[in-house]
């Protein structure tokens, strides 16, 4: 019997995605906007609260920071 491929919302694939996010969260060279896009993409693929995500990332102390980063995507930007 062939092994089933993991779907985008399976635990194994989320675990892999969390590893990538952990690197971005802790990488000072990662731009804040890139981090915001990565966080939002993860939340779209694996719906959960920001609190749950920060705990899964092992950075519950950064929950407020992650919320502020995500808020950047909601800001109306003035075009120059």
List the helices and strands and how they pair.
Elements: H1 11-25, H2 32-45, H3 50-56, H4 63-71
Helix pairs in contact: 1-2, 2-4
What does this entry look like structurally?
- The protein is built from 4 helices and no strands.
- The chain is an all-alpha fold and 80 residues long.
- It has a domain at 32-72.
- α1 (11-25) packs antiparallel against α2 and α2 crosses α4 (63-71).
- The longest helix has 15 residues, at 11-25.
The rounded Rg comes to: 14 Å
Question: Which class do the helix and strand fractions yield?
Answer: mainly alpha
Order of helices and strands: HHHH
Number of helices: 4
Could you give the distance between the termini?
58 Å
Mean of residue pLDDT values:
85
- The low-confidence runs, each spanning 5 or more residues with pLDDT under 50, are 1-7
Number of beta strands = 0
Largest sheet data: none
Helix fraction bin: 55-70%
Roughly what fraction of the amino acids lie in strands? Answer: under 5%
Shape: globular
In short:
The protein has 80 residues and is mostly helical. Helices cover 56% and strands 0% of the residues.
Features of the shown structure:
80 residues; mainly alpha; 4 helices; 56% helix; globular
